[in-house]
């Protein structure tokens, strides 16, 4: 299956975000963790990427951590 430029870009973006040492801290400091748009886009992109795609796996990992990230931010445990 040939990957489109958009799918390549999205995969790179996901890798860069999740390869950071502390994605939860990044999301908390930037305020993006409170953005429903971020989570909606992450979910949508995850759903369209093919199974086994590294970007899909990374996005699913981020989505699975959402509750924990939001709780840590509320409790001010990230910083």
Order of helices and strands: HHHHH
How much β-strand is present in the residues? under 5%
Structural class: mainly alpha
| Total helical elements | 5
The low-confidence parts are: none
Number of strands: 0
Fraction of residues in helices? over 70%
Distance between the first and last residues' Cα: 42 Å
* Rg measurement, Å: 13 Å
Mean pLDDT: 77
Task: Sum this structure up briefly.
This protein is an all-alpha fold. The chain has one domain. It is built from five helices and no strands.
Question: Key terms for this structure?
Answer:
mainly alpha; elongated; 79 residues; 5 helices; 71% helix
Question: What would you note in describing this structure?
Answer:
Helices cover 71% and strands 0% of the residues. The termini are far apart. It has helices spanning 5-19, 23-30, 36-48, 54-64, 66-74. The chain is mainly alpha-helical. It has one domain (5-74). The model has no long low-confidence stretch (mean pLDDT 77). α1 (5-19) crosses α4 (54-64) and α3 (36-48) packs antiparallel against α4.
